[in-house]
Amino acid sequence: LPEQEAFDIEYWLLEEAKLQRMPKPKSLAGRIALVTGGAGGIGQAVARQLLQEGACVMLTDIDGGALEEAEQALLKVAGRDSIATVRANITAEHEVEAILNAAALRFGGVDLLVSNAGIASSAPVEDTTLAMWERNQSILVTGYFLVSRAAFRIMKQQQLGGSMVYVASKNGLVASGGASAYCTAKAAEIHLARCLALEGAPHGIRVNVVNPDAVIRGSRIWDGKWKEERAASNKIDSDDIEEFYRQRSMLKRSVLPEDIAEAVYFLSSEKAAKSTGNIINVDAGNAAAFTR
Ligand code: NAD
């Protein structure tokens, strides 16, 4: 090569190498996220990922003590200017309004909603009381509706589009023995997401669903009765529950809170700008085929 040309190429390669080493702009910088159930295992993992991608996060949960602990843990990832918390019950209309007002006051609005707060309860249908049935519908359907409605109003007013991601469940697609109240509520959540996707599209508001299968590590749901009930329903020892789900899956892998967070992040980001009304199952293959 002529000397000047060789010099130009070397110079260009050096500039390229410098660019590669420069910190990339964060993909959610300037975005404001609201995460419900933020004190729980999946909620915290989602909040951590959104913070790492540069979003400001308003975390909400009914459990004030656990919410404080979650905030302390997340302050290791991002500063006080990016994290705020508000204790609220998503089934109470006025408390939901207070969550959205708090987000507006603290950060100026809401662009990304992650509707994730939840419970799990299980009983054979003949033992399912009306109270158990109504608790599932109230938190998993009415609660999701109330938070979505409030966020929808703000997003529409902002005229900046937005994203909602529902953390539903594989059990909203596939029935699970002795858990009709939970499975029915999760199915309704998924359909609510599709309805809101249709209404949101003209305003640039996308609504998608992430369906976890059993996420045992980190989840507070699995600390309680649910573990014993699921173990009994599958006729196994409760200590073997994680291994049971791992072995049952197509990929023979356990699903972790961080796996759910990755899918939520993808759907919340511009990478999914053309996805709405969709579902990502993060279930190691469990919704596609039963392998035991
Ligand atoms: P988790 O119990 O660790 O977190 C759920 C959080 O929701 C808790 O902190 C709880 O206090 C909060 N919450 C419950 N009721 C509320 C209310 N009325 N108002 C406000 N907050 C409320 O459980 P997780 O595993 O992190 O579950 C998160 C979501 O994922 C839930 O919707 C759950 O149904 C779904 N999911 C979980 C699994 C799993 O195996 N862990 C599987 C499928 C779906």
How would you describe the overall organization of this protein?
With 292 residues, the protein is α/β, with parallel strands linked by helices. Helices cover 47% and strands 13% of the residues. It is built from nine helices and seven strands; from the N terminus they run αβαβαβαβαβαβαααβ. It has helices spanning 3-21, 41-52, 64-74, 93-107, 130-158, 180-200, 225-233, 241-248, 257-268; strands at 32-36, 56-61, 83-87, 112-115, 162-167, 205-212, 279-282. It has a seven-stranded parallel β-sheet, with helices on both faces. The protein is globular. Bound molecules: nicotinamide-adenine-dinucleotide (NAD). The site of nicotinamide-adenine-dinucleotide has 29 residues, from helix 2 and helix 5.
Rg over CA atoms, rounded to whole Å, is: 21 Å
> What is the N-to-C succession of helices and strands?
HEHEHEHEHEHEHHHE
Backbone shape? globular
Q: Number of DSSP strands?
A: 7
Major β-sheet strand ordering: 3-2-1-4-5-6-7
Largest sheet: 7 strands, parallel
Instruction: Please state roughly what percent of the residues sit in beta strands, choosing from under 5%, 5-15%, 15-25%, 25-35%, 35-45% or over 45%.
Output: 5-15%
Bin the helical content. Answer: 40-55%
**Compounds present?**
nicotinamide-adenine-dinucleotide
End-to-end distance, in Å?
64 Å
Q: Indicate the low-confidence ranges by residue numbers.
A: none
Give the overall pLDDT as a whole number: 94
Classify the secondary structure makeup into a structural class: alpha/beta
Count every helix, treating DSSP H or I runs of 4 or more residues as helices: 9
